[in-house]
């Protein structure tokens, strides 16, 4: 099963559009759109809006997260931006600043 | 602690429109429209499409690249690989079935090699001006000034632009006169 892995030493300045899983352990600046799962690993930094399926954040995200599935903020996550999802979990230790819209 | 030798990959269904840079290795099986500057190895898979320059230490191409490849160690264009662009590396290998269209240059770009590279570039435009006389007036005027140190080569360059200028009827060989004044002792044939 193919997936896109942006390793720890890699920086992408621009748009990333994918129809498969994206794992970010490096830096993405711009826009990140995925059809499947997006995982921001610990140490990963995304300075962009994220749109995708299930989003799991353990790193830093500065931008809005919009998911048509669930959003999980793990311990160690740092999110500054709005989150729009149908389900959301914020683990103990995650830092979050923004609005949450669960389409209620 | 992040290891800098981590291997990254841009999957088959991924499109990246922007600059990709960093350390570690990168495998491209998707579409990248932006410069790639990686400190490690870059491998473009059979489904990979890269629309711009790649700079890395080792580059292996099995897909399509439209852009210049610059490697610190080696470039391998495998069977199925297509490159439209220049290749610059100390070691270049093009396997049977690999397609390359562009300038291929082995040997590093050290200052000692630069006069040789400039002389090689000066000898390359000469046949080109014969084939395309319409474009010739601009090209010899630009490329003849760079190699003034090699006097032998600049005399041959002056003869072909004179012929090309007369063919395109831009005017008398006045543009070439300033180049002659720069120290060459070529005698221009007045026709």
Report on this model:
- The complex is a heterodimer of chains A (104) and B (191).
- Chain A has 104 residues and is mostly beta strands.
- Chain A is 0% helix and 61% strand.
- Chain A is globular and about 35 Å long.
- Chain B is of the alpha/beta class.
- Chain B is built from five helices and 15 strands.
- The longest helix of chain B is centred in the last third of the chain and has 18 residues.
- The chains are: A mainly beta (104), B alpha/beta (191).
- At the A-B interface, strand 1 and strand 2 of A face strand 1 and strand 2 of B.
In summary, what is this structure?
With 104 residues, chain A is an all-beta fold. Chain A has strands at residues 3-6, 10-18, 21-24, 27-34, 38-40, 45-52, 55-57, 60-62, 65-67, 70-73, 78-80, 83-84, 87-90, 95-97, 100-101.
Proportion of beta-strand residues of chain A: over 45%
Q: Based on helices, strands and strand pairing, what is the structural class of chain B? A: alpha/beta
SSE string of chain B, helices as H and strands as E: EEEEEEEEEEEEEEEHHHHH
Structural class label of chain A = mainly beta
Distance between the termini of chain A: 34 Å
Strand content of chain B: 25-35%
Give the integer mean of the pLDDT values of chain A.
91
Number of helices of chain A: 0
Unreliable runs of chain A: none
Task: Round the mean pLDDT of chain B to the nearest integer and report it.
Answer: 72
Q: What share of residues of chain A is helical? A: under 10%
- Tell me the major beta sheet of chain A: 9 strands, parallel
| Number of helices, counting only DSSP H or I runs of 4 residues or more of chain B | 5
Largest sheet of chain B, in brief, is: 15 strands, parallel
Over the alpha carbons, how many angstroms does the gyration radius of chain B reach?
A: 21 Å
Helix content of chain B: 10-25%
């Amino acid at each position: 099963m193919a997936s896109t892995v942006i390793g720890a030493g890699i920086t992408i300045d621009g748009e990333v559009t994918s129809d498969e899983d994206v794992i970010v352990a490096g830096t993405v600046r711009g826009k990140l759109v995925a059809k499947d799962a997006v995982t921001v690993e610990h140490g990963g930094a995304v300075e962009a809006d994220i749109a995708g399926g299930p989003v799991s954040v353990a790193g830093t995200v500065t931008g809005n997260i919009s998911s048509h599935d669930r959003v999980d903020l793990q311990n160690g996550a740092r999110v500054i931006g709005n989150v729009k999802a149908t389900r959301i979990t914020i683990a103990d230790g995650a830092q979050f600043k923004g609005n949450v819209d669960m389409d209620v | 602690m992040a290891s800098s030798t981590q291997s990254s990959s841009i999957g088959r269904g991924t499109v990246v429109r922007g600059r990709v840079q960093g350390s570690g290795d990168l495998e491209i099986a998707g579409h990248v429209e932006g410069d790639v500057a990686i400190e490690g190895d870059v491998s473009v898979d059979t489904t990979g499409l890269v629309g711009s320059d790649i700079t890395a230490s080792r580059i292996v191409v099995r897909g399509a690249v439209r852009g210049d490849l610059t490697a610190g160690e080696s470039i391998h264009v495998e069977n199925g690989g297509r490159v439209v662009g220049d290749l610059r590396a100390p070691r270049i290998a093009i396997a049977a079935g690999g397609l390359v269209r562009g300038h291929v240059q082995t040997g590093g770009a050290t200052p000692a090699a630069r006069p040789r590279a400039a002389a090689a570039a000066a000898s390359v435009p000469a046949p080109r001006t014969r084939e395309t006389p319409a474009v010739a007036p601009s090209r010899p005027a630009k490329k003849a000034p760079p190699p003034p140190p090699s006097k032998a080569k600049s005399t041959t360059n002056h003869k072909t632009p004179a012929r090309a200028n007369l063919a395109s009827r831009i005017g008398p060989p006045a543009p070439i006169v300033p180049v002659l004044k720069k120290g060459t002792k070529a005698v221009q044939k007045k026709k």
